[in-house]
Each structure stands twice: as structure tokens, then as C-alpha cells.
Write a structure and sequence with these properties.
Length: about 425
């Protein structure tokens, strides 16, 4: 039976991002790898491309992005606009109505072909001033002294930050005419009212993207009440554990929180692999799989004294009993496709991978890299060591791609093969914070 083509769409703030407005290295690794292996994924956000890229630093997959709450669908790599939704000429009457209420919003538009956000600093609310202060130096910033300038260009987004008693009546007045999002900012607590063209919504953009990519189904992730329409437009909707209760009621299921990499872990479980700790009574199965996993290398290098394919059951039993030694079955496609053994003594000594293998019939699908990503989630990202065969260039490429560096000298085993050693040490991970939009 042919598999259905699925599109995964995740909200960004509060869902894919952690509470400190960063994307975890684990989430980056999972999405980059799974999309590289063919998974169709997009995130949907109220942010602009500029600020979305800042907070998703490290996410380098060529994926479509839904930005400005669905006003645009853009390419993550090139920034090319794939789909757009602008206001019509009726937006000028809307702006005049806001001016009558002494509300002078931030207006997003393409002016002379360039994306700009325009505002009048002398007429800004305190919340608006606090927000625009975080955007000083942004190439899109257009400070002006005239409200007439707020009507310039092709307008696609209007942001109001003010007191609820001023914004709620406007929300009630316009929610049936435009796409309006009325909520408090999850980081500052300020009240926002965002007004967009009727066609601009995460739900509509997800439908457009589904059609563009010729997908059969959409699976969505979210945290806020404003994600309910996205869930309703999707075939499945999963709320993170920190989500609003109203969204949880509309969800297909509840997953782990944003601070627990809920989306990435659900994607890995659904499209990738899981690690299952082996029990002592499964040592015989490990021996059989290990022999099959290393048989080709044993035949190629004839390293009978060192090859895992030549191990006895007593040797595996001894390794199983070593302090900190854990064997995990790598599960994918409903099968055990390989094994990874971790030695983690929970002290200053490096954690070690020894060995890791994928059965021949399951190779070339990224399962070894996925297993290493999951091992790092379980045991920590840094202070690792491993060794491998110098002549196996594919192994060297994988480990170096995962951040491992060569250490020490190669050890000659025989005329056919040498062993080289790798470590992955701690490095400083910078945090990139950025206000929405």
C-alpha cells in the first residue's frame, strides 16, 4: 500500500521554540536530518523572516516557512516569497478608523520593493515603544513623523500594542472582516491585536502549502488558542503540554512541552527512530544482530581478533555487566534495525559509543545518525568518544558531521585496516533572542 504524503506544520513560539526563545540543538538536528531524508516540514509564525531566522539559528533545512501569521509563505534558504496575501484598498479606511481612536499602529508593507515596518515614535503606546526598541537597527525599520506615511506601500500586516480596553472593542468590530489575533504576548505580557487580510492565516497557509506540495495530509503542532483554526484545518493536531487548555480540547493528542523538545521528539518517534534499552535476556539477539551487522566488514578486513562480528556471547555478557554499559535497540519501521551501545559512568570520564551498527537491509536511511542524536538527548550532547575504521570513509563523514574531531594517532590493526579515534567535547552554545515580528 502506498504511503500517504504528509506535511508537518508547527507553530514556532511556545511550541517549537523553548521558553527562552531558542531552538534547541536537538530540535535542529532532528528537523535538519528528517527533512534531509524527505520529511515535509514547515513552521508557522507571527514573526517576520528576519526574526524567525534569528531564533531558529542552526535550522538550515530547505523548508517552506509560514510567516506573519500566514501573510506569506517563503523559502527558508532563499527567502523567496512563494505565496502572498496583501490588504486591498479598504485598509486605508481601517487605518483612519484606528487614528480616530488615537491608535497609531505598526504597519508592515512592501515599499518600493523593500519590506518595511513603519511607525510614529511620538504617538506610540508604551508597549509599542518597548517593542520597537528591540527592533532598533533592523533594516526594515521606518520611523516617521507623519501618520500619512503609515499608508504607504503594499500593506500586509498591522500590529497594535495597547491596553485591552482600547483594543478589545476593535477586535470585536473587525474580527468578522479581517483575520484578527487578539492575545497577550507570551514573553512580555503586553496586549496585542494583529490585523491581517482575511486570507492570511496559519490555517489557510497550511492548506495552500498542502496543495503546493501535493500532500495528502497535514499534521499540526501548537500551543495557543490562535492555533485552533490550524488544528481544524489539519488532519491531526498535537498540543504541547504547556498549551492553552482550549487548544488541548481541540487536539488529537498531547505531546511533551516545548522545553522538552515535544515537537522534535514526536517527529522522531513518528518519522525516525526510538531507542529501547535492551534487557539481559536479549543478549542472544544482540549477538545475532551484531554478527549480521559487522559480517561485511569482517570479510573485507579479516580482523578476527577485533571485529564485533567475531565476538562470543560471553564477551557480550561481560560488556553488558560493565558499569555504565547500556545496549539500546534502534527501532524503526516497526523493526529492530540496529543497536547502539553506550558506556556512561556518570562522571568526568567521556561517554563512549562502542559499538554502533545498522543491519545491511536498513542502511542508507539515516538511522545511525538518528541513533546518535537520540543518544545525545539521553546522555548529554558533549564529552563523547568513539573509534572507527580509517578506511571506512562513510563512517568518518558521519562522525565529523555530528561534530566529532580526530584525536590521537591511528592504530594499525593489520595491512588492510587502521583504527582512528574521535572525541566530541563541550563548546559554548550562543543564544539568539529576538522579539516577534
Amino acid at each position: 500500500m502506498e504511503r500517504l504524503k504528509e506535511l508537518f506544520v508547527s507553530d514556532l513560539d511556545g511550541t517549537l521554540l523553548r521558553s527562552d526563545e531558542t531552538l534547541s540543538p536537538y530540535s535542529c538536528d532532528v528537523i535538519n536530518l528528517l527533512t534531509d531524508k524527505g520529511m515535509l516540514f514547515a513552521y508557522a509564525t507571527a514573526r517576520s523572516l528576519v526574526t524567525a531566522r534569528k531564533v531558529t539559528s542552526g535550522l538550515d533545512a530547505k523548508i517552506p516557512l509560514i510567516i506573519y501569521n500566514g501573510a506569506f509563505i517563503v523559502d527558508n534558504k532563499s527567502g523567496e516569497i512563494l505565496k502572498s496575501n496583501y490588504f486591498g484598498s479598504d485598509v486605508y479606511a481601517l487605518l483612519d478608523r484606528l487614528f480616530e481612536e488615537d491608535i497609531f499602529p505598526i504597519v508592515y508593507a512592501h515599499i518600493d520593493g523593500k519590506e518595511k515596518f513603519s511607525y510614529v515614535p511620538s504617538l506610540a503606546s508604551s508597549g509599542q515603544k518597548a517593542f520597537t526598541d528591540t527592533r532598533r537597527g533592523d533594516v526594515r525599520e521606518n520611523r516617521t513623523d507623519s501618520v500619512r506615511d503609515l499608508k504607504k506601500g503594499d500593506i500586509f500586516y498591522i500590529t497594535l500594542i495597547d491596553e485591552p480596553e482600547k483594543l478589545e472593542p476593535l477586535y470585536e468590530e473587525y474580527k468578522g472582516i479581517y483575520h484578527c489575533v487578539y492575545q497577550r504576548d507570551i514573553y512580555t505580557g503586553d496586549q496585542w491585536l494583529e490585523i491581517m487580510p482575511r486570507e492570511a492565516s496559519k490555517a489557510n497557509a497550511a492548506k495552500q502549502l498542502k496543495s503546493m506540495l501535493d500532500c495528502d495530509r497535514v499534521i499540526a503542532y501548537g500551543d495557543g488558542r490562535n492555533d485552533i483554526d490550524l488544528f481544524e484545518a489539519s488532519d491531526e493536531g498535537y498540543a504541547v503540554a504547556n498549551a492553552h487548555e482550549d487548544l488541548k480540547k481541540a487536539a488529537t493528542g498531547i505531546i511533551r512541552s516545548n522545553d522538552e523538545d515535544g515537537v522534535a521528539r514526536h517527529l522522531m518517534e513518528r518519522k525516525g527512530i526510538t531507542l529501547r534499552q535492551a534487557a539481559k535476556n536479549e543478549i542472544g539477539k544482540i549477538l545475532k544482530m551484531q554478527a549480521a551487522g559487522f559480517a561485511d566488514l569482517l570479510k573485507k578486513y579479516q580482523d578476527y581478533d577485533t571485529s564485533p562480528a567475531a565476538d562470543s556471547i560471553d564477551r557480550i555478557k561481560a560488556r553488558f555487566e560493565m558499569p555504565g554499559s547500556i545496549y539500546y535497540f534502534i527501532e524503526a519501521e516497526g523493526e529492530d534495525v540496529g543497536v547502539i551501545r553506550i558506556i556512561d559512568t556518570k562522571d568526568e570520564n567521556p561517554k563512549r559509543i562502542s559499538p554502533l551498527w545498522i543491519l545491511p537491509e536498513y542502511r542508507g536511511r539515516g538511522y545511525a545518525q538518528m541513533a546518535m542524536i537520540e543518544a545525545e538527548r539521553l546522555h548529554g550532547r558533549y564529552n563523547w568518544s568513539l573509534d572507527t575504521i580509517l578506511q571506512e570513509k562513510g563512517n568518518l563523514y558521519l562522525y565529523e558531521k555530528m561534530g566529532y574531531k580526530r584525536s590521537g594517532n591511528a592504530q594499525k590493526i593489520n595491512d588492510r585496516m587502521d583504527i582512528v579515534f574521535y572525541t566530541k567535547d563541550q563548546c559554548e552554545e550562543g543564544k539568539t533572542h529576538g522579539a516577534r515580528i
